[in-house]
Design brief:
single chain; globular; alpha+beta
Length: 170
Amino acid sequence: MFRKTMKKIAFSTILISFFLFQAGCGDKDADVMAYKGATYPPTTKIDYIFQAKQAPPACRVFAELLVTLPAEVDGKLMQRKLESEAKARGANMVLIGQSRQMEDDEGFSFVYYGPQKEYLCNEQWCGWKYGYDAWEEQGDFVNIGFKEWGNANVSFDYPVMLQAAFLRCR
């Protein structure tokens, strides 16, 4: 009887350990990479803004992300890549935030951070409050503003990380 009890305890301990190990194997970055926000039909036109207050009142933020751009990419290709992603997710407006130099060239990537629930940009925008673990590791700030965005004559010798938010405006 003692032996049977010990076998049950050992089996239970192994089983619990297995489930705890499996639960601990989740990678936060892997979850962030996959888009899990609101789904909208694809769009055909994107407008760009550089300040949240430029968004019309009915615009809702449904995706907050960091975009990595490889070195030597011009402003036109930056715009096309982000535009393609935004259209596929159903955005019709993109809020462009700050950008920083990166040491490592990760190519083009889109790392999503939320929000858990979409919100009105004009009334509830609280600034860029996501991805600081990655953001803080980057180098100097880079000017990508109205004059650089979409400009085929502007490029950078280094990779860039860019803040962006996808909006759906009704």
